[in-house]
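assembly run, all chains below
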Amino acid sequence: MKSKWLFLILIFLISCQAQTAVPEPPAESVENVVVEEVAVEATAPPVEPEQPTAVPTIAQAVEETVTEEPTPLPATPTPAPTEEPVVEANNFLETGRTDLGAYYLGSPNAPIRMIDYSDFL
Amino acid sequence: MLDTEPQIIENYVKTGQVQIVFWPVLNHGDSSTFATLTAECAAQQSTDLFWDVHKKLFENLSDLWGATRDELISLAVEAGAEQATFEACFDGPDGLSTVLALDQYRRDRGIYSQPIFDINNQIFAGYQRVSYFDEIFAALLDG
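ok done. output:
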């Protein structure tokens, strides 16, 4: 009978020790983590919604271009006045054809007529 | 005349004292004939053009011997002739008959050599310096 009591005591002790050996569950339960996350989310500063990037319209671009400071053009040198074209001498003189078909240069009223009988060769 | 003519033009023609008449002499066969025909066909477009071509022909005297049709056409076109009209004259009978008639006329006048200068019906033969003409012109203008 005595050994029976000893056996029971032993069983009790073993079971108690087994209970102490089982690690305690972590203090933070899943619920706690979720709550914390929610809390963090609640305390975080609100993120400003991203402002849409303004795309300039063609009119704006043109306006910007127009309102830009005009670049001064480089000074163009003033061209020197051109000389009078050289005109062939006979362009000032009367030319024509005689009754017999030869060609003359100079005034028909000139006091001297010089007929030049020549070969071009 | 290549050297003396420009001086005569400057000193006497421009002042209204002298009129120059060019009369062709064909003493060197076909080369003479076609060179003169070149001047004639240019003249049919403009009498001013005649004197431009006349000047060019004398400036290119050494190239005129045996000059081809195309070379003569180029010379006239460079002087200002309209090519198609010029070619029609150059290849046709009218220009050539005019040139030959002028040449016959000087033969009929007894002129066979060149150059010959008829100055107010006085005949002077051969190439002369401008001073030679100065004396002739002075005598005629003073008289």
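Residues 22-45, 51-89 of chain A have pLDDT under 50 and may be disordered.

Residues 51 and 64 of chain A are 22 Å apart (CA to CA).

not gonna interpret more than that til we talk
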